[in-house]
Structure of Putative esterase:
Amino acid sequence: MPDRFRFPTRDTICNAGPMSNPQVTADPSSLGFDPSRFARIDDHFRPYVDDGRLPGWQVAIMRHGQLAYESTYGLRNIAEGTEWSTDTIVRMFSMTKPITSVAAMILYEEGRFQLKDPVSKFIPSFGESRVYRSGSFVAPVTEALTEPMRIWHLLTHTSGLTYGFHNNHVTDALYRQAGFEWGMPKGMDLEGACDAWAALPLAFQPGSEWLYGVSTDVLGRVVEVISGQSLDEFFRERILDPLGMTDTEFWVDPSKQDRFAELYFPKPTGNARGDGPSANAAVMPSAPLDKKPTMLGGGGGLCGTAADYLRFAQMLLNGGELDGVRILGSRTVDYMTRNHLPGGAELEAFGRPLFAETEFSGMGFGLGFSVELESAEHKIIGSEGSFAWGGAASTAFWVDPHEDLIAVFLTQLLPSSTYPIRGLLQQLVYQSLAD
């Protein structure tokens, strides 16, 4: 792995109290930044730890293929007093989704499917799906599909599939009743989960609305069926190993458990930071995640580091290639990162006003990413054409092709809607540009 994409090991980090000194591989001024303005990022987010809102955090910024700024603050495990270091491993949750989307498009480039193919071609149970029309979760009234659920519906979250934790619609209640809220029924694998979701009513006819849900998990099963491999095997062979993402997996090897961050919930009262062990037990049936889980969730199962995710993001920014290894064709990446909502609609108009890992105003959605359409409407400084996503534990990343810039933010507080971290981070990153 070239040094420009390698974070320092814990043995080489100089710690100042609970914060690691920033690590850079180039003079930030030569990359177009005013280095003195980076201090505003730390000054803003340090109090999140000091007053108990977050356990710890990490921010990394790359431009022109070089690490311009990186900083950590706080703890990855409060009970043990373990500092957050640059090689800390976290639950990525929905930052898994872009990786699953890339996996699918690798198969697309091989001619293994077309975007308009019905999902039932690969998962037959979806050919029997019904759509919610009226009634309660006790006695829902459904209707037949007028449009098959297609692969592009999965990639764009327009399938009608939902999440149980939305707590907003009858279909959400049906998911919870079936054991799908933040987790899965014990012992269920991805194949079983897909058949269970296919038997539950869709929230709407496919292609008619945008709704954040288990679409990317179903997409992960499509990858398994087409490739003949389990999702972790496909990821490792086609994406993770080629990109040198050595710390990214659906579990954390016992030899790396000392780097694995604890997961926290907000407290019901007082400071928002909660008790880690109870949060882990509630969200993940196997809290240590020290072996391969039964459920390989393409929508939220990976664990990994900032260094690994920077490599994935740099591959996308490079048009599908990194260090001489090509994962996707450049035209495919361009196609994935344009708005695919029907008629060029914005999420504000086409999406249900529920939780998602992005703002809705001024935003569209591509094949696996939110896409910035109009920064003036978004009301956060940025660039049209930037693409991004985040994770339920308040992690986030974005790629800005116009500025040749990548930013990654890691912490472990669930849910991500607890604080408006992402927009504030974005305005603090862009204010540091001076070229």
